[in-house]
Design a protein that fits this description.
There is one protein chain. The chain is mainly alpha-helical and 409 residues long. The chain contains 17 helices and 3 strands. A hairpin with a 5-residue loop joins strand 1 (12-19) and strand 2 (25-32). Helix 14 (307-321) packs antiparallel against helix 15 (326-333).
């Protein structure tokens, strides 16, 4: 099977023009292994090919933009809307693909459309692109195909994607502002230490008087930074890269850093609530789609976005597979508040687990919104004070000798 995959011919995109059965001129694009394959496919569709040529790949790649999760969410919503309106799957893919503004996404959608037209079911066609359609997405689509409710399932997937992206955006906005201010403060401080303070130092040497302690400290800091700036910046960049590499490669490092992040003041509470919301939203969506609970927990673990909750979800899966109730398994991990466990228990007893999970997700998403708004209001004065202390302290240190000299004169 591996050998067959290696021998698979390289597929390229071809631009074609032809005439349909009504005699109307039509054109389009197709991913195929050869011109002959394009011709044969078009004839099967009732189109007489007139012109087929390979699309210029270099120009196309230059225009391609990165495919983001938001692109996938928008595509899912558009596809769900079209299928609900009764448009056939392949035609819906064609309409959405050709109308997409991102050429990279357009290529992806039209490639999937060609696979579907050649007889591949939608789940298999999507699973060929795991970078954009993960196991959770494919499992939900498969459940929709098997139950004959693909439009309904895609609507749930679209809602799920939109809510997950919204909560991710909230977390990013909470982290971006302080990070950007710290970076700007570092750059301003470096410029002052390297270029401005040495000018004052040469001026102070002609005073012939003792400098204030604060001024001496800043001048020594400037000398050290001017001499070792490359080591300081290299150390910071190296540390960031090393932490990033270790986080991506080591599950133990992921668990340690994610645990520390969950325990961080203020921001840890926001991340915890966001992770619980994502857990409940994912499990509720999969359970509503008819995916078995044990199988759903695999996808929920992968979608948690936090190694601590990933390990906790896998422990829940192991307990549930032995017959333990979901609420008892969740309670055993110690990762979920009592309110969440009680809501899950009520959902299990009433047979409305998916509805309860979605209500919990709604509650925690609102909590994240409120917490981020409160954090933004709290951070603004703190950050202004931080900038004032750092930059203002350097300026005051440089002007203290001038004030001292003026007072003696």
């Amino acid at each position: 099977m591996a050998a067959a995959a290696k021998k698979r011919p390289k597929f390229d995109f071809y631009v074609w023009e032809g005439v349909d059965k009504q005699g109307k001129k039509t054109k389009g694009e197709m991913e195929a292994a050869s011109v002959a394959y394009v011709n044969a496919t078009l004839r099967r569709q009732g189109i007489n090919p007139v012109k087929v040529q390979k699309r210029g790949s270099s120009l196309f790649k230059a225009r391609k933009k990165k495919i983001t999760p938001k692109d996938v969410a928008v595509f899912t919503r558009q596809l769900a809307t079209m299928l609900t309106a009764g448009i056939p799957v392949a035609q819906a893919f064609d309409i959405v693909g050709k109308g997409h503004e991102n050429p990279g996404m357009q290529e992806l959608i039209l490639g999937i459309k060609n696979d579907i037209e050649s007889g591949t079911n939608m789940t298999v066609a999507l699973s060929k692109h795991p970078l954009y359609f993960d196991a959770l997405y494919c499992n939900l689509v498969q459940a929709g195909e098997q139950a004959g409710i693909l439009d309904n399932i895609l609507d749930k997937v679209a809602t799920y994607k939109e809510k997950i992206e919204a909560i991710k955006g909230k977390i990013k906005s909470a982290l971006f502002y302080p990070t950007a201010v710290i970076v700007v403060a570092f750059i301003i401080t470096a410029v002052l230490l390297i270029f401005v303070i040495p000018q004052f130092e040469s001026l102070f040497q002609g005073f012939g008087a003792d400098l204030p302690a604060l001024t001496k400290m800043v001048i020594e800091l400037s000398r050290a930074f001017t001499k070792w700036w490359w080591a300081i910046i290299g150390g910071i960049v190296g540390t960031v890269l090393a932490v990033s590499y270790g986080y991506k490669r080591s599950p133990a490092a992921q668990h340690t850093m994610d645990r520390l992040l969950l325990r961080a003041p203020v921001i840890g509470v926001i991340i915890t609530k966001a992770t619980i919301a994502r857990f409940c939203r994912t499990l509720g969506t999969m359970f509503a789609a008819g995916v078995p609970l044990v199988e759903a927990l695999d996808s929920v673990a992968g979608a948690s976005g936090n190694r601590v909750y990933y390990n906790g979800t896998m422990a829940i899966k192991a307990d549930v597979s032995t017959g333990m109730q979901l609420q008892a398994a969740m309670n055993a991990t110690g990762l979920f508040p009592n309110m969440v466990v009680q809501m899950v228990a009520i959902g299990e007893e009433s047979g409305e687990l998916d509805a309860m999970l979605n209500k919990v997700a709604d509650f925690f998403e609102r909590e994240v919104d409120d917490a981020v708004d409160a954090l933004s209001s709290l951070l603004e004065p703190i950050i202004m004070a931080f900038l004032g202390i750092v930059v203002g302290g350097l300026v005051i240190a440089m002007y203290l000798p001038i004030f001292k000299l003026a007072s003696t004169v």
